Amino acid sequence: MKRQCRIWLPKPLSSTDDDSTPHSLLFGWFVSHSSSCLDVVVAFITDEVSLSRGSSLQEILSETNEMMPLTLPDKAAFTLLGCYDTCLSANGNAPKNATDEDGSYGSLCRYSCGCHKVDGLLEEFRKDSLSSHWIHMVHDSSRERGIRMHHIHWNEDVVSQCDVHHGHCQVIVYDTPVFGSHHFSLSFWNASPQTKAPLQKPNWVNDLHKRQPLIEMETVILSINCAASAEIAYKKLSTQLETSSRKSSVTYLISTLAWWLLATLLSSLSSLYYSLLQLIYVLSSFPIFSWGRIASKRLLKNTWINFRVRSCQILYWPTLLQENDTRSISCVEDAEKASLQRHSTWSAMAVDLVLGNLVGLGLLFNTGSVCSWLFHFAKEFTNDILRSGCVWLMGVPAGFKLNTELAGVLGMVSLNVIQIWSTLWIFMASFIFYLIRAVAVLGITFGATVSAAFVIDVITFATLHVTALHWAITLVYSHQIQALAALWRLFRGRKMNPLRQRLDSYGYTVKQHVVGSLLFTPLLLLLPTTSVFYIFFTITSTTINSVCMLIEFAISIVHATPYAEIMIWLVRRQRFPCGVWFEIEHYKKNILSSSNDSPEKNPFRMVSNLRSNFLSIGQILLPHYTTMFSGISASSLTTSARGVLSGKRMPSKLGLDLPPPRPWMHMPLRQYWILCHGSIISSSEKGSNHDLSLEKELPKASQSSSS
What we know:
By secondary structure, the protein is an alpha/beta fold. It folds into 2 domains: 4-191 and 217-241, no CATH class; 346-576 and 616-666, no CATH class. Helix content is 58%, strand content 13%. It has helices spanning 11-14, 57-66, 71-75, 106-111, 119-128, 203-210, 217-225, 227-239, 244-247, 250-285, 287-299, 301-321, 332-365, 367-394, 404-427, 432-446, 448-462, 464-492, 510-560, 563-571, 617-628, 634-646, 669-706; strands at residues 4-10, 23-34, 37-47, 78-85, 133-139, 147-154, 157-159, 168-174, 494-497, 502-505, 577-588, 604-614. Strand 5 (133-139) and strand 6 form a beta hairpin.
């Protein structure tokens, strides 16, 4: 039976050349897929002396597994993999099946491979361990990589050369994933839809799909992403590692003081917002102000929705910044996802506030110019578009001969409504100055999204007369279309069946046909006049709704854009992997060897590096924008277009996705300040701990591996 095995080595361990410490121990995971397929993931190497400083090895491994993600110990437990010798002859090969009668490794370990030097220390562990594997690796200076496998104990068999890919002994070298630096991920990006497959496929394609994958990479990649956390946890448990020297350094003290000042500033600012929001919430709950709250929610619907979203972000950002699950951060991939999710709220809020301050300050310094421009635009829109358009439709628009009486009635009603609304706005013109100031203050205080939503509500209220006229003419046009359709079915001898949603045959009387003919003729002749007014007000209303939809689209873009991911991607693209690939570094085969030579004399050697693909900026943004447009489909657009032809009103909102609102938070102001301060300090401590793992733990691991 051919055995399939891969050895995954960290890069510092695979390139070691130092032989000052002759005997060391390998720790990691045995990922067994079947009786003939095995992955050996080496996390780190350490000397034998470290085991005598702490608790027993079984307790250390058990506590280390408790710190790993929940899914990893179920598939592969963190354990002692074997030993690593630098004084063993590189040319010595272990004999196969060199076990004692009782199935132990005594004969091989005492006489061939030198494993007896750790037997006394690991005797208790071997009795309690359920693992049936043990790997022995040696230093080989003649190879490009300074380490190779000498033999492996595999289910009471001793195998010196594993059969991988028809005789290739493969070693895969990986860079240890570290939080904030890089990690590996198997998630692939499907940017384009799948193309339609041909009806008939070649036989070799069907056979290829029937073949089972050689190795389940999910568990292997998960264990590789947990290698750094396992090393740190093991060393803390076995050697009781302390970081007092770093905490006493001047750089650490300055960094701590800077973070404390930043936490105090942000906590005080957030507490100010918290007190303001609680004041608004308490005042709106009083019966005296309840009518004002109800009226404002109806008139300023978009403003209230975005104000609620911003209020929840301000209230909950310290809670979201904290990290509750300590086991998930052991995997670098999960820690990166949790970090991006934590930072998405405050980054979106910060960018929104910056944009709001830019727009708000611009409006405050140019209030007079904006007022004059609004007056000029309102005058041109009312006189040049609405009034001139209605007068034009009352005559002969584009050479079409309309019904003079009906066009005069519709035109006069429209002009009277426009004149009444314009007169009311003349009295309200003095409030436009304060209205612009209100938009600026909302932008500076709560961000650009709240002020933009307020602008949508103001535009909706200011064009209420256009909406009313469009609704009235739509009502007339739709009923006229429905009456003509019913009369046309009468002439064809058809009747609409509303239960089955189909046309059934029906026999009408002569009187019904006569009445239908008398009604059909005037309705059909008056249809062009009604259609012209309907088209005019539909275009005007759709233009206004398009402006509001464009602002709504900008609001959703501000909410949906992952600013934290974009900033991190610009600085370190390696933190966004997308699939893995293997770079063959060394492949050696003795082509001059005779066919009688055994594989042990001429083994195939294959060394490859584990590499990652990375997401592009478009691949990062597209999932967020796809979620935002999840409520819009081609069918909904087609339905709206058909509705316009039949006399239905166009929707005034796109229905884009916004962050979901959360329950209102109630807690004392002092407790909220402590919560904000503690979340920032804890976040800085996590960052310093990750820096410690980069600067202190990993160099120690490389030093121990090189020793």
